[in-house]
Structure formats: structure tokens, C-alpha cells
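FOLDING PROBLEM:
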Amino acid sequence: MNILLCPDSYKDALSAQAATAAMARGVLRAAPDATVVSCPLADGGEGSLEALIAATSAQRRLTTVQDALGRPIEAAWGWLAEQHTAFIELAEANGLQHLAPQERDAGHTSSFGTGELIRAALDQGAQRLLLLLGGSATNDAGAGMLSALGARLLDDQGQPLPLGGKALAHLASLDITQLDPRLFQLSMEAAVDVDNPLLGERGASVVFGPQKGATAQDVAILDQSLEHFATICATTLGKDYRALAGAGAAGGMGFAAHAFLQAKLRPGIEMIMAQTHFTQHLSRADLVITGEGRLDGQSLSGKTPIGVARLARQHAKPVVVLAGSLGDNWHACLEEGVTAAFALADGPMSLEQALRHTPELLADRCENVIRLWQASSALRP
């Protein structure tokens, strides 16, 4: 029996690597002779860098950059020397996890540090770059990143704008003539885990701004500021990318990465499955077990369990999802290749208890899934 374990992280509880280890303990309790293949995954958000480093044996580099509020932070990135390829995760520099709840301010946080990481990769000699978007604290449409790479964003007095999304309302001109010329020889892919456009009801500010500290008034100002920025960008570039699917990812970073750095936007789970040779593992599996913190209707936009299930369906492989919780419209996931889905909690418990006991809960659920799988196998002719 060949069991493929390929979870994402369980937010605030376990990394994907730790989740895989917990799953394996449960599988082997039920089936000591099973062949267990561990392939931790991610969808482009927080944890994606570690999944790529583990899968490719890339070197883990550290560079001091600015966090989302302009403070120094040591951010990790990956370097695959033989392929001249860099892995950069936005959340390492400008992630929400680095800010205390009271510090979250979507109007003033900046993606400048991510641009500094890109510059470090260029200094190393990068010819290819995988940019992992997700988990951001920012809502500046990538303007900070562009500033770090040489763009000049000026007000009507010809002065540089302050960093942050709200300041974009005062943008008068955008000078990209000083963008780092090495960018134009760089092949870039940007991993996104959502398909939202930059603006409007499904845009970066409205959908994701509140979780980054934006009030209802802030959301309206930010959406207008990003609209103004997009208009000036369209004039500068001669093409308008505001409606691009994925432009709203990471506070609009998808917009800047595609419009100015020619990044191809790809579902993060597809990119990471390709790098981890997931299809090869899948072809040998009898059963696939995946999961993450929550499974619901929004998972259909590109979250790890659905990416796994869609590919597994093409190979006629059964997929069980173990989620911290099952949310609204999770049944829709059954139409995407998910065979069955289970929540981890085995009785009434607080969120704090559930997070503390996630490793044991995950192992227990895997053990029960394998026992049921063995029983059903015994009944087959």
C-alpha cells in the first residue's frame, strides 16, 4: 500500500513539514508495512519557500531588508545555483505574521522589502525567479517593490511619494527609466493562490484589506488609490492590467509583478507541484491524503487540497482531505476530485485547544482513514 501525504500548513499550528510527519505517524500505526511518501506542499502563500527548499535542496540564504513597516528584518530566500534560480516568498519580508495585530495598517504598509530581496537575487546572478505571493501585510499594488528596484513615484511637486497604498492617491508621475536593467533578462513566475482582480468588490482592498487592519473607510480610500495608480500605470505602459485575474493577489503585488516585471501569474499549487515532481509521486500512490487549516468554497480558487484533487482526478486516485475545519460550501470541493473530507476536532474544543493538539488530531484522523481504507480493500473482489 502506497500512501502519498501532501498537506499544506495548518495556520498557527503546524508547518506543512510537521503536518506530514504527524500524518505519517498515524498511517504507520494502522499499517506498519505501508510505503509512505511525504511531499509537503503549499499554494504560494506562507510556507511555500520552505516547501521548495525541501523539495529541491536549494540553499537557504538570508538578507536584511525592510519589513512592511520599514523596520529591518532578516528574510530568507532560496538559491538553486545550478539552475541560476531564486525562490522569493513575499511573506518572508513583508508578511502579516511579522506584525502584531495593533501594528497592522494596510494604508501604510509597503512591499519595499520584497523588491530588496529581488535585488539580492539579481546580485547573486539569478536568471530565473519564482516569486511566491501570499500572506502579505501590504496593499500597495507592488509600488514599494518597484521603488526598491529603481522606479520613481513622484507627487505633483516632483517629490518621491511616501511608501504605502494610501499615498498612491497623490501620485502624479511614474518614472520607470531607472528600473534595474537586469530585470529585463530575468524570467519570472509569480505564484498566486487567488484569482481576484486589482480593484472593485473582488479586488485587493475590499476582499483582503480588512484582514490587514483596514477599516471600512480605509478600504474605500485604498481602492480609489489603487485605481489612480492603475490609471497612471496604464498611461505609462500603454496597457491596462487592472482586470487581470490574480492582479489582486498579495495586496495587488500580482498587478505590479505582471505589468512591470513580465511575471507569468500561475496558481501557486501548480508551480510548487511542478517543482516537487508531484506527478511522479502521484502516479505510484494508492491513496492521497492532503489538508490545511480550513476547507470551504473559497478553496476552489487555488488552495492546495483542490489543486491536489484536480490533478489526482486525472490519474483516478482517491483523495482524502483532513482540514482544521470545514466551512461554508465545502461540499463544492467534492465536485473537484475530493473523495472525502473530515474536520480534525473529535469533540467540543476551543480554537486554542485545537491548535495545541493539531499533531495528535491529525495522526488520529490518518490512522482512522487508513483503517477504513484497509477494511474497504478487504471487501473488494
Summary: The mean pLDDT is 94. The radius of gyration is 21 Å.
